[in-house]
Specification:
The protein is mostly helical. 58% of the residues lie in helices and 0% in strands.
């Protein structure tokens, strides 16, 4: 059977009209269809990754490293807190003035914690990521002016000792970064052992501050400057 003839002037129905939508109404998008089908509206709900934006995560990203694990954070902050407490006890037993005790507690928090932080996989991935050069590492070392802070705040810790510690650590850092990659690790340990004798020899170092120079060496030469061993960054075949 054929369809009945339409009166003259009546247009053919469009595909849109056949679907029941008025002319000019746009097709629904695939996303909109999916939203109606699932009952969801707007962007998807944030998952566990939303916690990355919390204040605590931003703080640990700065104090430890971006993406640090819970274990790395716990050990690093624990070492920093215990180290600061030990340094405070030594300073109070000396006895040192309270401003010196405060300075030593803050410096100890940085060095005890930093020695652990810089040894973590997360920190090594961050500080030795692609694009980081010897210049970045040496600037990091140069920024550690704590020897002069101690000379200013701690009675008995002389400016000559501060200069000796600062220059010795900086010179050792230059030698470590200049060493061939396969030899960088043994060079760092050799220089740490040698400089350790040099910076702990001055007689004007108070007993309450005797921990300072060794920890500075560990944090900078051994922990910060050395990339992670199994990344291949410091291994390039046979040593010369």
């Amino acid at each position: 059977m054929t369809a009945p003839d339409r009166p003259p002037g009546i247009p053919e129905p469009s595909a849109a009209g056949a679907s029941g939508r008025p002319p000019g109404t746009p097709e629904p998008s695939a996303a909109g269809t999916s939203d109606r089908r699932t009952g969801a509206s707007g962007p998807p709900a944030a998952g566990p990754s939303a916690s990355r934006g919390t204040a605590w995560t931003r703080l640990t990203d700065r104090l430890v490293a971006p993406g640090a694990t819970r274990g790395e954070i716990t050990i690093s902050l624990g070492a920093a807190a215990v180290g600061a407490a030990l340094a405070s006890v030594l300073a109070l037993r000396a006895p040192l003035p309270w401003p010196a005790c405060v300075v030593l507690a803050l410096v100890a928090f940085d060095l005890f914690g930093g020695a652990v932080v810089n040894s973590t996989r997360s920190a090594k991935r961050w500080y030795h990521r692609p694009g980081r050069t010897a210049r970045h590492h040496l600037l990091f070392v140069a920024a550690h002016g704590q020897p002069f802070l101690l000379a200013w705040a701690v009675p008995g810790y002389g400016w000559t000792t501060a200069l000796l510690v600062y220059v010795s650590v900086a010179a050792a850092a230059v030698l470590v970064t200049a060493a061939p990659a396969p030899l960088r690790r043994p060079v760092a340990f050799a220089l740490t052992a040698l400089v350790l004798v040099l910076v702990t020899s001055p007689a004007d170092v108070p007993d309450a501050v005797a921990w300072f120079a060794p920890l500075l060496l560990v944090k900078l030469l051994l922990a910060h400057l050395l990339p992670e061993a199994d990344t291949g960054s410091d291994a390039g075949g046979r040593a010369p």
